[in-house]
Write a structure and sequence with these properties.
Layout (H helix, E strand, L loop, with lengths): L1 E6 L3 H12 L6 E6 L2 H10 L4 E4 L8 H11 L4 E6 L4 H8 L4 E5 L4 H19 L2 H14 L2 H13 L5 H10 L12 E8 L5 H19 L3 E7 L5 E7 L9 H21 L2 E7 L8 H15 L7 E4 L9 H19 L3 H15 L6 H22 L20 H19 L9 H12 L7 H7 L4 H12 L3 H16 L7 H7 L5 H12 L3 H15 L1
Parallel strand pairs: 1-2, 1-3, 3-4, 4-5, 9-10
Antiparallel strand pairs: 6-8, 6-9, 7-8
Helix pairs in contact: 2-3, 6-9, 7-8, 7-11, 9-10, 12-13, 12-14, 13-14, 14-15, 17-18
């Protein structure tokens, strides 16, 4: 999915373009808006932006200055200048910049949409790395020489122990990279989904992923990659800029660029890649510890076959306090009591709460294991107590977490066991609503007046934006934007029953600062303006009397 940011200090233009593009290829285009250059830069700090459609003349920072700042952060971002001024000097400066188009507002919406579609196709083609892969295979074979890879694997396992540091220095001298042993390092771990059975096929995939990653990450980083003992690809990264390690944008840059690597791998290789990376720098001596953290985080999160980019936000190792341990065990005991007495809704509420914690991105491995085994032992005990071995012959797997390829599959097995127990006491149990989607839907309905952009919803629910969009469509069968529009119209219809409320007040309560924008959407989806709808209610009410 590509992300488009619309920037214009004229609110009606920004809102109109936003509404138009929000419904233009919703499966491929995520649209954001800003009313100033400062607000646009705020978006750029929060998420990767692929295209910016901006006015060239704005108060304060103008479009040209904004473009320079954007390209310093996201050099692959495409810029489309949209202005009412046919000023030759501005146009001339715009044409000197890379990845920039220039349009007049008088050319109309159709022309703007055509250009945006063209730019999307250019981006898609730029992600097809087949030609690059063919040209670079010989270089890659030299970079992946046995001695170099083995030494870097040794670094992942042992760190910079005595005698290893000098060997690593010699290895780095043989690789075309400027990585510095006296500067901190970032790690990235990538795994293809699924892993290929053929060794030669898997090695070819790994080599190609390394080439694509180096090509895209190398624009702002010094990097070197290896294939570890598990068949995953690992990158060691440092920012090119002198002040890079102090720049909080660097972690976001890695995240956004890894999304591009995913798209390139899908386009060029037909494979899905899950990335896990360190959100903070670490010393070379801490590489084995950070590498193991990434492996554990990846194990806890992979399993649904969807490309993800997971950032490890480092925290001190979690140590359970007596109070926390009691809280976990008391909730599991209460859950068991609800199951015994047939209070299935309460049982599932506690069960969902606990397994939801298992899948939280900030959940440590130690706490996840304690929570899991409390749950698993409770369910296993119920199977034995009720004599239900025949309903789940492999129930002993509950007590062997290491048998599962990832935490998601372990949680799915917990769900299976819980459903078997509930179905034993109550037939024809309705299928459980997905906890994450239900939570998201409830939040949207309760906060229609707030920021409900894809990026904001992803931040609130700890998702990668692209993953959240695909996940919602997969679970609900409709686009997230369509669900939000439908919820807003439903709420607006309720509010319009109150004749004391002005249409603008209704618009504000369902998330539209512009009454004009609200009216256009309402008419598009209902066939009537808000005022016409309100009058129809009055006519209907009078007829019933």
């Amino acid at each position: 999915m590509y992300r488009l940011l619309i920037v214009d200090d004229e609110e009606i233009i920004t809102d109109s373009l936003y509404e138009t593009f929000s419904r233009h290829m919703p499966d491929q285009l995520d649209v954001c808006k800003a009313y100033s250059a400062a607000e646009a830069l705020s978006w750029m700090r929060r998420s990767r932006i692929d295209m910016v459609l901006t006015d060239i003349r704005m108060p304060g920072v103008n479009g040209l200055e904004l473009t320079e700042e954007i390209q310093s952060r996201w050099p692959l971002c495409r810029i489309i200048f949209l202005t009412g001024h046919s000023d030759f000097e501005y146009a001339y400066k715009a044409f000197q910049m890379n990845n920039v188009r220039y349009l007049l507002k008088t050319e109309g919406y159709d022309k703007v949409m055509h250009v945006v579609t063209q730019v999307m196709e250019e981006i898609r083609q730029s992600h097809d790395m087949n030609k690059l892969l063919q040209q670079q295979r010989e270089i890659t074979s030299r970079l992946t020489a046995f001695k170099q890879d083995e030494m870097l694997r040794k670094l992942l396992q042992e760190g910079t122990a005595t005698g290893v540091l000098n060997e690593i220095q010699q290895v780095l001298l043989g690789i075309p990279t400027d990585l510095k042993l006296n500067s901190p390092i970032y790690l990235v771990l990538g795994r293809s989904n699924p892993m290929h059975e053929s060794v030669s096929e898997q090695e070819g995939i790994q080599a190609s992923v390394r080439i694509i990653g180096a090509s895209l990450l190398g624009k702002h980083t010094q990097c070197v990659s290896i294939t570890d003992h598990y068949g995953d690809v690992v990158w060691l990264l440092q920012p090119k800029s002198e002040q890079g390690t102090a720049d909080q944008h660097f972690a976001r840059y890695i995240e956004g660029t890894l999304e591009l690597v995913q798209e390139s791998c899908a386009a060029s290789l037909g494979v899905s890649i899950t990335f896990t990376f360190s959100g903070h720098e670490c010393d070379w001596s801490q590489i084995p510890r950070q590498y193991e953290r990434l492996r554990l985080l990846q194990w806890m999160r992979i399993g649904d076959g969807v490309s993800m980019v997971l950032m490890d936000s480092y925290e001190e190792p979690w140590v359970a306090t007596p109070k926390e341990a009691v809280r976990i065990s008391s909730r599991v005991e209460a859950m068991s009591g609800f199951l015994e007495t047939g209070r299935f809704q309460s049982f599932y509420e506690l069960f969902e709460e606990l397994v939801g914690e298992l899948l939280q991105q900030d959940m440590t491995m130690e706490r996840a294991m304690e929570t899991y085994y409390h749950l698993a032992l409770s369910l296993y005990t119920a199977f034995n107590r009720w004599g239900l071995k025949q309903r789940m012959p492999d129930q002993r797997s509950l007590l062997h977490l290491s048998n599962f390829p990832c935490m998601k599959e372990a949680v799915q097995y917990l769900y299976h066991a819980a459903d078997e127990l509930v179905n034993f006491k109550r037939a024809n149990e309705e299928e459980r609503a997905n906890l994450v989607v239900q939570s998201l839907c409830n939040y949207i309905k309760a906060n229609l007046e707030k920021d409900l952009t894809l990026v904001r919803l992803a931040e609130l629910h700890h998702f990668n934006p692209s993953y959240l969009s695909r996940f919602f469509k997969q679970e609900m069968g409709i686009n997230l934007s369509e669900f939000i529009d439908d919820s807003r119209i439903r709420k607006a219809k309720e509010l319009l029953l109150d004749n004391e409320l002005m249409v603008r007040e209704v618009a504000l309560q369902v998330g539209y600062e512009s009454a004009h924008s609200f009216t256009r959407l309402f008419k598009k989806l209902t066939g009537m303006t808000p005022q016409e709808y309100r009058e129809s209610l009055l006519i209907r009410s009078s007829a019933q009397r």
